[in-house]
Write a structure and sequence with these properties.
Blueprint: H1 4-10, H2 12-23, H3 35-52, E1 55-60, E2 67-72, E3 80-86, E4 106-108, E5 117-119, H4 127-142, E6 149-155, H5 165-171, E7 180-183, E8 187-188, E9 195-200, E10 202-211, E11 217-218, H6 229-238, H7 261-267, H8 274-281, H9 294-299, E12 303-311, E13 321-322, E14 325-334, H10 340-353, E15 360-369, E16 372-373, H11 379-392, E17 397-400, H12 407-415, E18 419-421, E19 425-426, E20 437-439, H13 440-459
Parallel strand pairs: 3-6, 3-7, 7-18, 8-19, 9-17
Antiparallel strand pairs: 1-2, 2-6, 4-5, 5-20, 9-16, 10-14, 10-15, 11-13, 12-14
Helix pairs in contact: 1-4, 2-4, 3-4, 4-13, 5-12, 11-13
The protein binds ligand BES and manganese (II) ion (2 copies).
Amino acid sequence: MQTPSQYIIDNKQRFLDELFDLLRIPSISADPSFSDSVHKTADFVAESLRKAGADNVEICQTAGYPIVYADKIIDPSLPTILVYGHYDVQPSAPDELWETPAFEPVIRKTEIHPEGAIFARGSCDDKGQMYMHVKAFEAMMKTNSLSCNVKFMIEGEEEVGSGNLGPFCIANKEKLKADVVLISDTSMIANDIPSIDVGLRGLSYVEVEVTGPNRDLHSGVYGGAVANPINILAKMIASMHDENNHITIPGFYEKVAELSAAERSDLNLAPFDHEAYKKDLNVGDTWGEKGYTVIEKTGIRPTLDVNGIWGGYTGEGSKTVLPSKAFAKISMRLVPNQSSDEITALFKKHFESIAPSSVKVEVKPHHGGEPVVTPTDSKEYKAAARAVKRVFGKDPIPTRGGGSIPIVALFKKELGLNSVLLGFGLDSDALHSPNEHYGVVNYFNGINTIPLFFEEYAAS
Ligand code: BES
Ligand code: MN
Ligand code: MN
């Protein structure tokens, strides 16, 4: 009998071709005009699971985009792994900044990926990483080496907050019964420095609207006497960081879990090249909260960032106008033990309290999610670490990721399940940015590591 790794070598080109077909479908969940494509992608994922040998393949309808479910129960006495991933992607805009079109995948070599990377929206986040699980499952099925039961739950709304997945989990607790959740939707430090995320930040996301006069005004006739909502909004936003780049919202840090000196020094043992980091981003310096390293700033500290700001005249040439309204979308990344609802409420209260009487403000909460930290002394982390070591030849370093996967906290709360964040992307793979890519080596390292995780987890 063949081994999974030999099967993977023998089917290398087909595994790439199929991923390319998946990447060609523009499954942008944020934009309703792509709705047909998002549904088509769900069908593609369901069909690929069926072909790989899964049973009970289902396209579960929700109030939004469907959740693809499938399973393979080989022996009820074996542990069951619930694989979670997402088939939706972020918008590709600004399209003009892509070297090749976002939904026409191509392989190009880069400095970091000398053996080639797949350039396409979703190549890393998360179609490429999700599809590794479909192909690893196929390899285990075809070589008769599946060592755990497996369930798949692949959703199409992760990039818009997973609003329908929580209710789905609550309504399907029996169906989703498992021992652990396995997710590939995070990053590693580098191809020669394997790591496993043991934390994700939470998220509070709000949209604010500042209204000045009841209509746009002539900025000469009224300017100077009537508050300009854009000027006011800019000042309000600027005031939310102090001179040390601490966030000024009262109570914002109250529940932040402070790490011990030993925990912080452990975290900073992970290799980090500040010069290379700056060079990659072409910035003169990094920024942030005084007293913390870059690893800490993105891993264990909360943030507040404006994601978009608009208002007034932004067209060709100039228009002298004192606008009636200004808007911004603001996100706050959260860490244990902050709560998304509490932070959103604190933001709203503070934002309203600092608004001068010359304007009216409105704060509209968007989706949110809770932060998570996963244990490193658990059976699942240890199995993942052994699997990674067998492929990469080195023990992985536990890292705290800066991004958010809001559903991970819900898996714990609603299903009682821990998650393993077995990600194979790199932070520099341009997730959510133009020219997103995913190393061909990363794709196959992932496909090779997954069967070993199954094996190690079953053995432990
Ligand atoms: N896969 C990312 C999250 C991620 C990326 C975690 C890299 C760790 C390292 C996920 O698809 C994502 O983008 N999540 C969103 C949150 C969501 C509510 C829109 C995020 O982090 O902005
Ligand atoms: Mn993702
Ligand atoms: Mn994403």
